[in-house]
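Troubleshooting log. The previous structure file for this entry was overwritten by mistake, so regenerating from the original sequence record. Sequence copied from the archived sheet and checked twice against the printout by T.R.
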Amino acid sequence: MPRLPVRLRPLPASLLLGLVWGLWHLPLLHVPGESDEGLPLVGFLVLITGTSVLMSALVSAARGSVLVAAVVNAALDASYSFTGVVGGDHVTFWAAVAVTTLLALLVVRVTTTYPSSP
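Regenerated output below.
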């Protein structure tokens, strides 16, 4: 991630990272017994891409701390498992997709809107 913003603006870099991250985890949707098994592909990619935008903003605010990314990733994985986001109940999964997408859009809006000068 640190090298992507050099070539791309932060949002496209986060979106590209989300796509790569989603493709990296794609096989988990087909591993029998894995908690991600059977999740809808589109929702999975949207969730990971939104999460990438959020995590990129957090890491940027923490001046590039990889520790922040690791802790947030672990916290999200644990909370998704504990609340049933991953697994058989797709209602909870789609709720997480919606909330994550809305939060990511809010972060994009807040971080790309600058107050006008008086």
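The chain has a mean pLDDT of 84. Archived copy saved in two places this time.
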